[in-house]
């Protein structure tokens, strides 16, 4: 907290900070870590072919490229297939209740800004039950990377429609499970445009990536990790069991234009809105700008609240004398 | 010399400034070496409605809000009608004759003071009406003008120089009026400005905040809710001064999960809420139990259910605090009894949370949290702080070998902290084994359920959470918990003095239940009654269920705190008529 210097921007540069125990038996201060170093002893429980395997590997690769000490990494998740991800990574993990990965991650980061904090979850966890937390995580702009594994379906509960399921008959035709919940006319509710929402909330980093494009995904997640502020990564990750979108998504994914200006929020919103009608998904960084983080602003608060020396509890009690 | 014991009530339209009169009077009397106990009763709305503030003043510590009134000051007819029935036969009513008609048939001393007219025509600043009212009261108490003048200068009315002159003038007009009209209640309250900082004037919420900070709390997340918002507001100012973080979250669910996240890294964390917020936190409380994460949740109880009565007091969240969970999620539930105790119980709440790696619910209530009392300044060098059990730093145990939920003798396992210990693990709300790996086997669930329960049950041996008072050979025993302690003990003293054989057992720990003490008390006394501010007798039901005993109950559900007189009457009733 206060005694710790603002480290929001430091994590990408020195992999061994904060080295309280860097000489311990298990730390690897010199060797460059590889993807394997982030693989835990627990084998993923996902269905064969699940897009989340791709996200897991991409995240592990991004962590390895930054040589982050597993001791300094916390992966926070809620409930759902994707919520199981922290178990499979060799790092600290905090698996909380449904929809609350973001508040938990913010508590972790606020209490120890030196940690690399990653929140992960699905479209239901993040935009149905947990949807109320997203704008506030964006407002606080803590240095947290939030990876939403969007398969447009509830997988762990076996195939109900989610907030990002396409409306009407479209999903019904492609899904083996959707007829359970929407057997007549498909989903009646409109489809949330998750990416556009997050851009409009004012997020400082918004990107999309596809689990079938491994290299690209590791790069995008890495950029999210490097971004000093709240980074939102929309990781499209198909569910082959309940709503198999591999084929249509492979066709509809395309990179953002070469000359894409990541500094133009209005254009980013336009793109996120228009691509739906065009039936395409763009991958890459839609928007990025660097704003002061919550941790940065706290330093100003501390400067005003106590200056050089923190108050004693006795001094605080003087106001009641 | 008779003991000083005066109960003074000021009542008027909410938003008119009556509360300020009470606050300044209480602070001024407290700074003059006297003990005070305030009591406010106001509507939940910002403006409008009848509101009242009450100050009970004694020369020894005050334990309850006071019974019938010695002095009632009312500013209008509505408040006259509401409160005049509570004045003692020997008491005095001060009313504004231009705003209300006094009931001449009452055998009370009733003094008309045209507060509104004097303010309008003589003082000419409506803002100073409350200073005038204050002056009438201090003059009636026999406090010399010079002392009252110092009180005003040192109060919020003296903070801004440009208003000080008009405020002192208003005070002077009060003394002139009392003098010219020959008003003399025969009171000579001795005041002497005490310098030094040995005594503090605090509300329960203030004391609780200071206790939390003294215990090492450096992260707070919360969402506004009456009557717990003061905690967040006090900490918003204090927390940054000690280098901590205060986060106002988007709801109570975020508040508790963010707190869990912060505690996961090793921070001492707290969130405070009231009933509706505690309802929202229930799921995450189970998570903290499952992941064995220390956490302090303060519940400032108010009248329920639903939105209920946000500004009224009740002890009706006990069931929720103890039992509110899906599955079986044991946690520690403790309750504070008075302002000073709020400080020390907050410290204990953190110590218990850290020692047992568990959520601790600290129950307060609206009346306890918002009334002001005088307390001795805590000696911080005497405050014991407990640290969380952690693995050895630089130890050679690899994460693969390390058991986060190792079965230890006391069922508490060393907890590694990210950024500090290499033994990283995944804390999960799913059932798990010692190694924190997910495990739904019968064996794992049996072992871990036992670990979670045994750990909490052993906290019952912590000292200082249950206390017996009164006669050894009592015919009637009263059981109370939390903030009803004060009125129960005052009633106990009064009835003991009258020769009744009565005893009391006060609980500050509610879960785990100090069963041994409860059983010994209940079995040694012919009639035992549980005194609490709820309709169903939540603590009585809980005791009956655990101990298989039969208990009497004394419950009130007015939304107001117990008066010592209520309990005194109850004791006399039971012992005289059975």
Summary of the model, kept short:
The complex is a heterodimer of chains A (321) and B (578). With 321 residues, chain A is an alpha/beta fold.
Structural features, described:
The complex is a heterodimer of chains A (321) and B (578). Chain A has 321 residues and is an alpha/beta fold. Chain A has a single domain (35-293), classed as Rossmann fold. Chain A contains eleven helices and ten strands. Chain A has helices spanning 51-65, 101-111, 123-129, 134-140, 169-174, 194-201, 214-226, 246-252, 265-278, 294-305, 313-317, and strands at 73-77, 92-95, 116-122, 144-150, 153-154, 160-161, 205-210, 231-236, 253-255, 281-288. In chain A, the strands form two sheets. Chain A has an eight-stranded mixed sheet with strand order 2-1-3-4-8-7-10-9, with helices on both faces. In chain A, strands 5-6 form a two-stranded antiparallel sheet. In chain A, strand 5 and strand 6 form a beta hairpin. In chain A, helix 1 packs across helix 7 (214-226). The model of chain A is unreliable at 2-25 (pLDDT under 50). By secondary structure, chain B is α/β, with parallel strands linked by helices. Chain B folds into four domains: 5-180, Pyruvate-ferredoxin Oxidoreductase, domain 3, CATH 3.40.920; 200-382, Thiamin diphosphate (ThDP)-binding fold, Pyr/PP domains (Rossmann fold, 3-Layer(aba) Sandwich); 389-462, no CATH class; 466-577, Rossmann fold, CATH 3.40.50.920. Chain B is built from 18 helices and 21 strands. Chain B has helices spanning 18-31, 77-83, 115-123, 129-140, 145-153, 161-180, 204-215, 229-241, 252-264, 275-291, 318-323, 339-356, 366-370, 442-457, 485-497, 515-524, 538-547, 564-577; strands at 5-13, 35-41, 50-58, 69-74, 87-95, 109-112, 199-203, 219-222, 245-248, 269-273, 295-301, 332-335, 359-365, 372-376, 426-428, 466-470, 476-481, 502-507, 509-511, 527-532, 552-555. In chain B, the strands form four sheets. A seven-stranded mixed sheet of chain B has the order 9-8-10-11-13-12-19, with helices on both faces. In chain B, strands 2-3-1-4-5-6 form a six-stranded mixed sheet, sandwiched between helices. In chain B, helix 3 (115-123) crosses helix 6 (161-180) and helix 7 runs parallel beside helix 8 (229-241). The longest helix of chain B has 20 residues, at 161-180. The two termini of chain B are 37 Å apart. The mean pLDDT of chain B is 96. Chains A and B meet through strand 1, strand 2, helix 2, helix 4 and helix 10 of A and strand 7, helix 7, helix 8, helix 9 and helix 10 of B.
């Amino acid at each position: 907290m206060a005694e710790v210097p603002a480290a929001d921007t430091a994590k990408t540069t020195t992999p061994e900070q904060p080295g309280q125990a860097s000489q311990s038996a298990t730390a690897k201060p010199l060797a460059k870590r590889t993807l394997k170093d982030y693989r835990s002893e627990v084998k993923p429980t996902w269905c064969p072919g699940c897009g989340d395997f791709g996200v897991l590997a991409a995240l592990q690769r991004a962590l390895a490229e930054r040589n982050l000490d597993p001791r300094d990494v916390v992966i926070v998740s809620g409930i759902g297939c994707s919520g199981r991800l922290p178990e499979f990574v060799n790092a600290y993990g905090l698996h909380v209740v449904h929809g609350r990965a973001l508040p938990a991650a913010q508590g972790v980061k606020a209490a120890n800004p030196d940690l690399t904090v990653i929140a992960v979850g699905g479209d239901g966890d993040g935009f149905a039950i947990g949807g109320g937390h997203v704008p506030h995580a964006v407002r606080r702009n803590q240095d947290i990377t939030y990876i939403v594994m969007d398969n447009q379906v509830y997988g762990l509960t076996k195939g109900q429609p989610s907030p990002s399921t396409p409306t009407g008959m479209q999903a019904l035709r492609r899904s083996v499970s959707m007829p359970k919940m929407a057997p007549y006319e498909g989903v009646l509710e409109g489809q949330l445009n998750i990416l556009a929402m997050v851009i409009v909330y004012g997020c400082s980093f918004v990107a999309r990536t596809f689990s079938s494009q491994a290299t690209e995904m590791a790069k995008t997640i890495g950029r999210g990790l490097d971004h000093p502020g709240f980074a939102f990564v929309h990781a499209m990750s198909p569910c082959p069991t309940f709503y198999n979108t591999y084929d249509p998504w492979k066709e509809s994914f395309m990179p953002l234009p070469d000359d894409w200006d990541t500094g133009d929020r209005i254009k980013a919103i336009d793109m996120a809105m228009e691509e739906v009608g065009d039936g395409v998904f763009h991958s890459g960084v839609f928007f990025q700008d660097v704003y002061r983080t919550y941790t940065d602003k706290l330093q100003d608060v501390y400067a005003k609240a106590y200056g050089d020396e923190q108050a004693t509890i006795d001094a605080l009690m003087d106001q009641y004398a | 010399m008779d003991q000083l014991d005066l109960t003074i009530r000021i009542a008027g339209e909410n938003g008119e400034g009556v509360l300020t009169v009470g606050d300044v009077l209480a602070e001024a009397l407290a700074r003059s070496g006297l003990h005070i106990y305030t009591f406010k009763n106001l509507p939940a709305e910002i403006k409008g409605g009848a509101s009242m503030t009450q100050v009970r003043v004694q020369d020894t510590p005050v334990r309850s809000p006071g019974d019938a009134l010695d002095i009632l000051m009312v500013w209008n007819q509505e408040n006259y009608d509401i409160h005049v029935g509570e004045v003692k036969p020997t008491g005095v009513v001060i009313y504004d004759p231009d705003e209300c008609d006094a009931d001449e048939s009452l055998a009370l001393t009733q003094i008309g003071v045209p507060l509104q007219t004097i303010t309008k025509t003589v003082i000419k600043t409506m803002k100073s009406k409350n200073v005038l009212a204050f002056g009438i009261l201090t003059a009636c108490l026999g406090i010399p003008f010079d002392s009252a003048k110092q009180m005003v200068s040192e109060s919020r009315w003296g903070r801004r120089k440009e208003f000080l002159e008009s405020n002192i003038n208003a005070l002077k007009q009060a003394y002139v009026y009392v003098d010219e009209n020959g008003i003399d209640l025969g009171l000579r309250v001795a005041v002497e400005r005490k310098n030094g900082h040995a005594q503090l004037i605090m509300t329960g919420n203030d004391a609780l905040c200071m206790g939390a900070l003294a215990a090492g709390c450096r992260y707070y997340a919360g969402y506004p809710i009456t009557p717990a918002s003061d905690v967040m507001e006090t900490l918003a100012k204090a927390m940054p001064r000690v280098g901590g973080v205060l986060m106002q979250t988007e709801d109570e669910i975020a508040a508790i999960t963010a707190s869990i996240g912060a505690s996961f890294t090793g921070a001492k964390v707290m969130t405070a809420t009231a009933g509706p917020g505690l309802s929202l936190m229930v799921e995450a409380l189970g998570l903290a139990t499952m992941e064995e994460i220390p956490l302090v949740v303060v519940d400032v109880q108010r009248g329920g259910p639903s939105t209920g009565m946000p500004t009224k007091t009740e002890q009706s969240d006990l069931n929720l605090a103890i039992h509110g969970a899906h599955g079986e999620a044991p946690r520690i539930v403790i309750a504070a009894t008075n302002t000073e105790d709020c400080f020390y119980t907050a410290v204990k709440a953190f110590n218990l949370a850290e020692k047992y790696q568990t959520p601790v619910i600290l129950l307060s209530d609206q009346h306890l949290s918002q009334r002001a009392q005088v307390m001795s300044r805590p000696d911080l060098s005497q405050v014991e702080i407990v640290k969380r059990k952690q693995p050895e730093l630089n130890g050679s145990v690899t994460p693969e070998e390390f058991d986060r939920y190792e079965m230890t003798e006391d069922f508490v396992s060393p907890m590694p902290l990210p950024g500090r210990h290499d033994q990283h693990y995944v804390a999960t709300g799913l059932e798990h084994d010692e190694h924190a790996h997910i495990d739904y086997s019968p064996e794992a669930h049996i072992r871990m359920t036992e670990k979670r329960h045994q750990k909490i049950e052993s906290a019952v041996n912590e000292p200082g959470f249950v206390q017996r008072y009164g006669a050894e050979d009592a015919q009637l025993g009263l059981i109370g918990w939390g903030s009803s302690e004060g009125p129960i003990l005052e009633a106990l003293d009064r009835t003991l003095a009258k020769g009744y054989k009565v005893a009391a057992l006060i609980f500050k720990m509610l879960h785990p239940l100090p069963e041994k003490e409860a059983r010994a008390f209940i079995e040694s006394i012919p009639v035992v009654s549980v005194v609490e501010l709820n309709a169903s007798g939540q603590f009585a039901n809980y005791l009956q269920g655990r101990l298989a005993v039969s208990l009497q109950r004394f419950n009130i559900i007015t939304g107001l705190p117990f008066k010592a007189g209520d309990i005194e009457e109850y004791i006399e009733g039971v012992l005289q008529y059975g």
